[in-house]
Specification:
The protein has a single domain, classed as Alpha-Beta Barrel (TIM Barrel), CATH 3.20.20.370. The chain is α/β, with parallel strands linked by helices and about 220 residues long. Helix 1 packs parallel to helix 2 and helix 1 runs parallel beside helix 6. Helix 5 links the parallel strand 7 and strand 8. It is about 35% helix and about 15% strand.
């Protein structure tokens, strides 16, 4: 049977230190909810945590709790937001890398990659991971799709850019060795029942992620 992974996507934790974009609060969880997630996945080797955007809560809240539990995660900052209020600065990015966390790219700014011209595609898919890699001291070759949006052209550009793994927001389980990985986004109203459904039912639905390729809606 093919090995599977349940990827969970987090954004901000705790009280935001910046003004949130419209709708962003729906993907912001409390510290208590985050600790609830960590408790639920502690002994589940098939569950993988990812963090988008590069909010400062990645270092201030998430990192010490991950380290205390011996867990690792994957972080996808926006390269163009480093050092801005409420976001990671360069020192914070290096701290994540030193702690053994994986660093990937979420692009330069929140943009729909399906609508990029060649110049902006180069900035989002090449310049952003290069900056992040230079700062953390190792190549950055994994990507998280902004808004979870993609089509065939986006995936082709990512392959040309040298992407070794790409994360969507399709939900459900993913093949452990798959290049395109489905994720389930955590929302502000998550509870134990929701987590049980995602971690157990999501694992049971392994393999269904293939049928979702290329059908992401405009957000």
């Amino acid at each position: 049977m093919r090995a599977v992974t349940v990827n969970l996507a987090l954004h901000g934790i705790g009280r935001p230190a910046r003004q949130l974009d419209p709708g962003e609060d729906e993907r912001w969880v409390t510290v208590e909810q985050f600790e609830q997630v960590l408790e639920a996945i502690q002994d589940k080797a098939h569950v993988h945590l990812t963090f988008d955007d590069g909010n400062e809560s990645d270092v201030e809240i998430a990192l010490p709790r991950l380290v205390d539990r011996g867990l690792t995660a994957e972080f996808f900052p926006l390269a163009g937001r480093l050092g801005q209020r409420g976001y990671l600065d360069r020192a914070g990015l290096r701290e994540l890398a030193r702690a053994g966390m994986e660093i990937g790219s979420h692009g330069w700014e929140p943009r729909d990659w399906r609508r990029l011209d060649d110049r902006h595609a180069r900035r989002e898919l090449t310049d952003a991971p290069k900056l992040l890699g230079d700062l953390c001291g190792r190549p950055v070759r994994r990507y998280s799709l902004p808004f979870g949006a993609y089509d065939k052209k986006v995936l082709t550009r990512l392959k040309q850019a040298g992407a070794t793994r790409v994360y969507s927001s399709d939900g459900g389980a993913a093949s452990q060795d798959g290049w395109l990985q489905a994720r389930t986004e955590l929302s502000h109203d998550l509870d134990d029942d929701w987590l049980d459904d995602v971690l157990v039912a999501g694992h049971r639905r392994a393999g269904n992620w293939v049928s979702r390729v290329f059908r992401r809606p405009v957000r």
